[in-house]
């Protein structure tokens, strides 16, 4: 079943997701760090560190949003990072951050859909995505297009929420995620649905081996998954 942010609307998931991120973009970074206690920053750092041995020179950051994963990837000293996203609101905050860092010559953000990427086959050394794949309208199609634009021998890193499995952390986390996070998210972002959509979409999304099955079907090989912080998030690694 497809989880939608605005259940009363007829618009497609993609249109609703773009609208939702446009709405919350002014508060997105603040809420991310507040609601995760800053741990999202450590997760992105860890994911990028895993790319170091591959030494990628060209990186595509899918669902780049306000650009945090792309900015973190600067640590790898690549020649070029391209970020794509369907939300112009998120991209405009990202462009401002990159301008302040003086990194416009390395990171370029552009509007683009992960399910129809505007790049030739085998273009990038690495394709990365943090907290994006859960929002795709068609997960398999998005992952397949990511594999298409990555060169043979390249590495793909996916960072995404997963579901903690063990007592008592699972119960504590579920309480926070379902009852506390949506209230804070709604008050700060002023969007009634976005932070209810977050736990609902995580609940419905395949994690661990279930995600790896779709990842492999999309064309990635030598796949691995690495749960983080009691399984709240997971890093998936794939090659082509
Ligand atoms: C939770 S944000 C993640 C942003 C960023 N990667 C981060 O780690 O903070 C998810 C982003 O995915 C984008 N998105 C959703 N579906 C997409 C698609 N089909 N193609 C490109 N971007 C998409 C949304 O617009 C949103 O900016």
UniProtKB/TrEMBL annotation:
Give the range the annotation lists for the signal sequence. Answer: none
Q: In which pathway does it act?
A: Quinol/quinone metabolism; menaquinone biosynthesis; menaquinol from 1,4-dihydroxy-2-naphthoate: step 2/2
Statement: the UniProt record of this protein carries the keyword Endoplasmic reticulum: no
- The answer to whether UniProt assigns keyword Transferase to this entry is yes
- Ranges in coiled-coil conformation: none
* Key words of the record: Menaquinone biosynthesis, Methyltransferase, S-adenosyl-L-methionine, Transferase
EC number(s) of the enzyme? 2.1.1.163
Q: Which reaction does it catalyse?
A: a 2-demethylmenaquinol + S-adenosyl-L-methionine = a menaquinol + S-adenosyl-L-homocysteine + H(+)
Query: Where, by residue number, does S-adenosyl-L-methionine bind?
Result: 66, 85, 113-114, 130
Q: Name one GO biological process term.
A: methylation
Molecular-function GO term, any one: demethylmenaquinone methyltransferase activity
Q: Which Pfam families match?
A: Ubie_methyltran
Q: In which family does this protein belong, per the annotation?
A: Belongs to the class I-like SAM-binding methyltransferase superfamily. MenG/UbiE family.
- State its role: Methyltransferase required for the conversion of demethylmenaquinol (DMKH2) to menaquinol (MKH2).
Q: Which HAMAP family match?
A: MenG_UbiE_methyltr
What name is this protein filed under? Demethylmenaquinone methyltransferase
Which species does the entry assign this protein to? Pseudarcicella hirudinis
Taxonomy-wise, where does this protein's organism fall, top ranks first?
Answer: Bacteria, Pseudomonadati, Bacteroidota, Cytophagia, Cytophagales
């Amino acid at each position: 079943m497809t989880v939608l942010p605005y259940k009363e609307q007829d618009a497609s998931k993609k249109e609703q997701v773009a609208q939702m991120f446009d709405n919350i973009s002014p508060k997105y970074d603040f809420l991310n760090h507040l609601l995760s206690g800053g741990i999202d920053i450590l997760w992105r750092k860890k994911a990028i560190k895993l790319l170091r041995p591959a030494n990628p020179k060209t990186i595509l950051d899918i669902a780049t949003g306000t650009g945090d994963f792309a900015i973190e990837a600067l640590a790898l000293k690549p020649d070029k990072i391209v970020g794509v996203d369907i939300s112009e609101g998120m991209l405009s905050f990202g462009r401002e951050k990159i301008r302040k860092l003086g990194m416009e010559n390395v990171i370029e953000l552009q509007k683009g859909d992960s399910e129809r990427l505007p790049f030739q086959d085998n273009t990038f050394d690495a394709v990365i995505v943090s907290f994006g794949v859960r929002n795709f309208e068609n997960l398999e199609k998005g992952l397949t297009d990511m594999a298409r634009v990555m060169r043979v021998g390249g590495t793909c890193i996916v960072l995404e929420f997963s579901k903690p499995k063990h007592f008592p952390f699972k119960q504590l986390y579920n309480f926070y995620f379902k009852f506390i996070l949506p209230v804070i998210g709604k008050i700060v972002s002023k969007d009634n649905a976005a932070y209810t959509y977050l736990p609902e979409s995580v609940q419905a999304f395949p994690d661990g081996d279930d995600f790896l099955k779709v990842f492999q079907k999309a064309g990635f090989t030598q796949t691995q998954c690495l749960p983080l912080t009691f399984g709240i998030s997971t890093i998936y690694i794939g090659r082509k």
